[in-house]
């Protein structure tokens, strides 16, 4: 690490997610080290000792200068970022690294010009690995199994969809999930496999139904405050951007994918035949369950002025293209 | 340097009788404005004043206090006190020991040190006064006894710690049992010391007949039922600690109804008092969180961590340093905000050194407990003062001192012998 | 006239606080019962209880202001006598009014942000800014209560 220059600009990062989680330790904190390296120590990022604002306020806090940098999911403020819900619908994220790059390109081409994230500097947007169905005692193998099942969900898109097929969606933070599962407040949860092991709740789960492409995916952002950005010299701005954007999206997404595969292997070994892949009938049923939500979302998204059909097509096309390149 | 000014300013405002919520809030706000400008500073106040209050997690505060208030009006704490008193009240210092034991028992399910202190001061102070106990021993044992409930499960503090460090809350509760009992024993020793060695004034209570003793113990069925409901429910996995507070509040109403002691006026009285306590505590929470953000923005935790790392200490050395910091902070900070502030800073350090986080949690909560009775800001002492207004606050602090020594001894034992915390898990 | 209006607000705030507090306990209890006995659950309990807490706090604030119930340290009270007592009391009062004015202002600001963001409650479904509006209004009423209350002064003992 180069010695700190006297004119070092120290940026504060809102550390609300557990700092020892790999997404922070191996992902963002490494990225922050690189920022310091490429700016030769002129810009340095310091994570806060405790959350300065709750995860629901990341965007607001960056936009009015409470913190300088933040990472977090769009879904924590339901309704605020309708366009981000494009990547949250099911069956689309097979490799979070690839999808993240495609998503970032879509953001640059369609969403950013339409004014999404106008109050901040966007360093990257990315997706997380697809969520599966993790159940405690009773597996969900067919649509009827959703009847009266209490499932903790991550996004409102999923909440509405599974409510339509008889399930009882329950909210609550990831931190509370262990309590929820151990006390039987929920029968299961929908998460990516790696969050299940990452938050050490996998011991409560005995049945997993893998949903190829994910029951949902989360859209996430890495943001910087505009004023602080303008304090950085153009040379350093360029240096930071050279490791941000698509690169950062890929870094976060692929890290997610890598850890998801590790967790999947771990869970498959432990659960054996109780780790199942959803069959066609279940997928079809879920598709129907999400139908109304998709229609309603299209209207909301159109209201932002984006040609959402075109954006969606671009996202899919990019995903396929990058998949073939690899 | 700025932070030295901030701490001095905070102390000055507190001594100038500015409400704690306002003092911490104003110093925090001005400090944040100094570092970041007014707009971000006020922005943080706005987020804290809306999001903190709009959260489920903090609902545990009014619910536990409500349960405590209903119980305190149902005569349950009184019966607990009478029963213990029938057994040991007639020994020298027996009433003070009774107070300690009843506080421990009451707070087992009450969960709130404030509610315990407030309730016990109503129940235990008059008899101690009547039998000639000195003000300092009487109030000291009540203020200190109230802190026992912070650790003895169900414990809000352990819930918060568990959430922040992702440690199993059930395990934390089990781990809290032995150190909790140890705390009661050491407090009893403190009372014995005060009356036998220091010879402080303490009259003898009336000796109860065998029949009276059995009758008193028989009265305890309601108490046992509530313990069973609240603790049993948590351990059996029927509900979360937060929910147990809601169940406990409704359960307390039900018990008073069954025993025919229900009065509409006690319910409304309990609700009204709960509202006052809740509002003043959440106001303090808001102020403290603003101040905590200032501490955070000023990079004080970062420098502390660097400093601790630079000394290259053993785990014991690090713990001693951390506890010293707790003691200093505990002098002026309210316990909840102290936890919110320090746990995220310290737990990664000790975790990296391979320390068991359940054990660390018990240490942190005991250290936090102590802060409730250390001057100048000892919230339990203030609660007591608000109920018994004619006793001088310095008298209470003087009375608390022997218990403070007992607490420090307990802390040392828990640090030196992890088995005390980890034996049951 | 002025005083009767204040006491009317006092009564109203106190009733709101007490009712909502009871509801909070009741909803938690019912949710647990539904789960334990009927295997069903009210998905919105989390959000509802949070809202209840907000209402309890800001509605209760009025009476805490009116009755000077904020927790403060009276360690040096015996030094504050006569004019010094008045001075110290007014100093605290001004800070108090300033701080709670800032809270009111920021609540409305926060409401505006939330409205622009179109944030919604995930399970209750309605827009979040309605609740922030209610919090802002209650906090304003509480502030009026504070302004109409004379500064806290420890009664001279005698
Ligand atoms: Na307790
Ligand atoms: Na203290």
Automatic annotation (TrEMBL), chain B:
The keyword Magnesium does not apply. It is found in: Cell inner membrane. Keywords: Cell inner membrane, Cell membrane, Membrane, Transmembrane, Transmembrane helix, Transport. GO terms for cellular component: plasma membrane. GO terms for molecular function: transmembrane transporter activity. The chain crosses the membrane at residues 137-163, 169-195, 216-238, 274-295, 315-336, 357-383, 403-424. It is a multi-pass membrane protein. Its main location: membrane. The keyword Zinc-finger does not apply. Residues 7-418 form the TRAP C4-dicarboxylate transport system permease DctM subunit domain. PANTHER family: C4-DICARBOXYLATE TRAP TRANSPORTER LARGE PERMEASE PROTEIN DCTM, SIALIC ACID TRAP TRANSPORTER PERMEASE PROTEIN SIAT-RELATED. The complex comprises the extracytoplasmic solute receptor protein and the two transmembrane proteins. Part of the tripartite ATP-independent periplasmic (TRAP) transport system. Belongs to the TRAP transporter large permease family. This is TRAP transporter large permease protein. It comes from Marinomonas algarum.
Automatic annotation (TrEMBL), chain C:
Its main location: membrane. Residues 24-147 form the Tripartite ATP-independent periplasmic transporters DctQ component domain. It is found in: Cell inner membrane; Cell membrane. One of its GO terms (molecular function) is transmembrane transporter activity. Keywords: Cell inner membrane, Cell membrane, Membrane, Transmembrane, Transmembrane helix, Transport. GO terms for cellular component: plasma membrane. It is a multi-pass membrane protein. The complex comprises the extracytoplasmic solute receptor protein and the two transmembrane proteins. Part of the tripartite ATP-independent periplasmic (TRAP) transport system. Belongs to the TRAP transporter small permease family. This is TRAP transporter small permease protein. It comes from Marinomonas algarum.
């Amino acid at each position: 690490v180069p010695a700190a220059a006297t004119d070092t600009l120290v940026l504060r990062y809102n550390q609300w997610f557990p700092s020892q989680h790999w997404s922070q330790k191996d992902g963002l904190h490494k990225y922050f080290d690189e920022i310091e390296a490429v700016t030769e120590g002129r810009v340095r990022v310091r994570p806060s000792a405790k959350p300065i604002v709750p995860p629901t306020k990341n965007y607001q806090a960056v936009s009015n200068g409470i913190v300088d940098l933040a990472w977090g999911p769009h879904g924590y403020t339901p309704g605020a970022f309708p366009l981000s819900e494009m990547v949250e619908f099911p069956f689309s994220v097979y490799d979070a690294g690839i999808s993240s790059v495609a998503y970032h390109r879509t953001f640059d081409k369609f969403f950013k010009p339409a004014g999404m994230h106008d109050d901040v500097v966007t360093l990257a947007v990315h997706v997380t690995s697809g969520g599966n169905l993790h159940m405690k005692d009773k597996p969900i193998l067919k649509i009827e199994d959703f009847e009266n099942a209490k499932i903790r969900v991550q996004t409102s898109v999923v909440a509405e969809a599974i409510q339509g097929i008889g399930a009882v969606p329950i909210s609550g933070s990831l931190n509370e999930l262990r309590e929820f599962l151990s006390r039987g407040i929920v029968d299961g949860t929908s998460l990516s496999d790696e969050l299940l092991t990452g938050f050490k709740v996998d011991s409560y789960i005995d049945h997993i139904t893998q949903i190829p492409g994910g029951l949902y995916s989360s859209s996430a952002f890495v943001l910087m405050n505009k004023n602080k950005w303008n304090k950085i010299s153009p040379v350093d701005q360029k240096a930071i951007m050279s490791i941000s954007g698509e690169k950062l999206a890929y870094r976060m997404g692929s890290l997610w994918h890598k850890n998801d595969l590790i967790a999947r292997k771990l869970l498959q070994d432990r659960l054996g035949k109780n780790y199942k892949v959803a069959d066609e009938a279940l997928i079809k049923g879920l598709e129907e369950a999400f139908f109304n939500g998709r229609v309603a979302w299209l209207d909301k998204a159109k209201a932002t002025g984006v040609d959402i059909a075109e954006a969606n097509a671009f996202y899919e096309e990019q995903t396929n293209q990058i998949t073939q390149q690899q | 340097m700025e932070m030295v000014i901030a701490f001095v300013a905070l102390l000055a405002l507190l001594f100038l009788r500015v409400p704690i919520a306002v003092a911490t809030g104003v110093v925090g706000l001005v400090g944040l404005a100094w570092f970041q400008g007014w707009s971000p500073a006020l922005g943080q106040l706005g987020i804290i004043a809306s999001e903190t209050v709009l959260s489920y997690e903090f609902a545990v505060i009014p619910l536990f206090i409500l349960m405590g208030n209903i119980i305190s009006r149902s005569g349950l704490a009184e019966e607990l006190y009478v029963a213990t008193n029938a057994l040991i009240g007639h020994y020298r210092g027996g009433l003070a020991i009774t107070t300690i034991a009843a506080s421990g028992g009451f707070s087992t399910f009450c969960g709130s040190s404030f509610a315990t202190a407030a309730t016990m001061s109503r129940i235990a102070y008059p008899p101690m006064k009547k039998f000639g106990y000195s003000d300092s021993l009487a109030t000291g044992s009540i203020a200190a006894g109230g802190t026992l409930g912070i650790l003895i499960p169900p414990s809000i503090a352990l819930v918060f710690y568990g959430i922040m460090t992702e440690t199993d809350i059930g395990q934390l509760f089990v781990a809290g049992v032995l150190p909790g009992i140890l705390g009661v024993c050491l407090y009893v020793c403190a009372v014995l010391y005060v009356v036998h060695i220091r010879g402080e004034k303490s009259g003898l209570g009336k000796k109860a007949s065998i029949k009276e003793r059995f009758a008193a113990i028989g009265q305890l069925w309601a108490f046992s039922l509530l313990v069973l409901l609240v603790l049993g429910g948590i351990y059996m996995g029927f509900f979360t600690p937060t929910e147990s507070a809601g169940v406990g509040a409704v359960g307390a109403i039900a018990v008073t109804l069954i025993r025919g002691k229900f009065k509409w006026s006690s319910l409304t009285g309990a609700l009204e008092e709960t509202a006052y306590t809740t509002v003043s505590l959440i106001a303090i929470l808001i102020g403290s969180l603003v101040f905590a953000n200032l501490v955070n923005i000023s990079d004080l935790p970062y420098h502390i961590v660097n400093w601790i790392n630079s000394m290259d200490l053993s785990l014991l050395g690090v713990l001693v340093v951390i506890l010293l910091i707790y003691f200093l902070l505990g002098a002026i900070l309210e316990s909840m905000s102290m936890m919110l502030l320090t746990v995220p800073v310290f737990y990664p350090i000790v975790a990296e050194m391979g320390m068991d986080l359940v054990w660390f949690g018990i240490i942190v909560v005991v250290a936090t407990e102590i802060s409730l009775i250390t001057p100048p800001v000892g919230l339990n002492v203030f609660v007591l003062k608000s109920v018994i207004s004619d006793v001088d606050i310095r008298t209470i602090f003087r009375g608390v001192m022997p218990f403070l020594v007992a607490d420090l001894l307990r802390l040392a034992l828990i640090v030196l012998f992890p088995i005390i915390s980890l034996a049951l898990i | 006239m002025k005083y009767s209006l204040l006491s009317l607000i006092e009564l109203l705030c106190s009733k709101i606080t007490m009712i909502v507090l009871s509801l909070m306990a009741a909803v938690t209890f019912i949710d647990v019962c539904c789960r334990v006995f009927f295997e069903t659950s009210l998905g919105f309990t989390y959000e509802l209880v949070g809202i209840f807490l907000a209402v309890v706090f800001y509605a209760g604030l009025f009476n805490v202001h009116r009755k000077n119930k904020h927790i403060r340290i009276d360690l040096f009270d015996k030094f504050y006598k006569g004019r010094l007592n008045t001075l110290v009391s007014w100093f605290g009062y001004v800070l108090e009014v300033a701080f709670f004015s800032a809270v009111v202002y920021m609540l409305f600001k926060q409401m505006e942000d939330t409205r622009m963001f179109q944030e919604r409650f995930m399970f209750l479904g309605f827009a979040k800014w309605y609740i922030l509006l209610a919090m802002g209004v209650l906090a304003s009423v509480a502030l009026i209560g504070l302004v109409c209350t004379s500064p806290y002064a420890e009664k001279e003992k005698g």
